[in-house]
Amino acid sequence: MQTLVLDQGYQPINTVPWQRAMAYLAKNKVEVLEEYGREVHFNVGMPAVVRITHAIDAKKKRIKFSRQNVLARDRFRCQYCGAHGKDVVLTFDHVIPKSRGGKTEWENIVMACQSCNHKKADLTLREAGMTLRAQPVRPTWVPVFNVALREVDSIPVEWREYWTAELVP
Predict the structure, then answer these.
(1) Which residues have a Cβ under 8 Å from the Cβ of 138 and sit 6 or more positions away?
(2) Is there a contact between 33 and 8 (Cβ–Cβ < 8 Å)?
(3) Which residues of the chain, if any, have pLDDT below 50?
(4) Which helix (H) or strand (E) holds 18?
(5) Where are the strands (E) in the chain, listed by range?
(6) Per the domain annotation, does 96 fall within a domain?
(7) How far lies 25's CA from each of 29, 55, 67, 137, in Å?
(8) Which of 36, 115, 128, 147 is most buried, by the most CB atoms less than 10 A from its CB?
(9) Domain that holds residue 113
């Protein structure tokens, strides 16, 4: 069982095994907001949702550049046409092509469906006649969870009040 971890503003930032959530609780790092209907010990419930009790300095925590984090930042959508869903294959696209000096970094990578990636190819946005839905930036928030949740049914009922991420049908 996983425990949903919220920041001080009640936004989901991670999931951890319930045992780790219990360790955080023992160290007074979190408060329990919701419990599963099980006890892990006498009168101690299994945490379903916890909220951290201390501020996270986003400047100190550098968000790792990874496919999963870029997908989360771009909300699992093509940044050109907006395509999304389980049948849409998304790939990295360099806004400024690598052949023209573009780097593989937060500010130059977006997720693109295969059709848009093929259309843009090795062109600039202007040359391809395309626009971005949003400028790619380095996130200042942790954009990805340890568990990929793609279907509404897979989200525990205890999380639903706190789950704000857009779900892919």
Answers:
(1) 63, 106, 107
(2) no
(3) 144, 146-153, 166-169
(4) helix 18-26
(5) 2-6, 12-17, 30-41, 44-52, 90-94, 109-113
(6) yes
(7) 6, 16, 31, 34
(8) 36
(9) 67-128
pLDDT value at position 143? Answer: 55
CA distance 32 to 49: 6
Residues 6+ apart with CB under 8 A from 23: none
Any alpha helices (H) in 30-164, and if so which ranges? 67-73, 114-120, 125-128
Give the per-residue pLDDT at 42.
73
Contact 78, 103 (CB under 8 A): no
- Are 48 and 91 in a shared domain? no
d(CA 110, CA 135): 9
Residue 168 within a domain: no
Distance CA 92, CA 151 (A): 24
- ∠ at Cα 6 (110, 158), nearest 5°? 110
Helix, coil or strand: residue 52: strand
The tokens describing 51, both together, are 């909220």
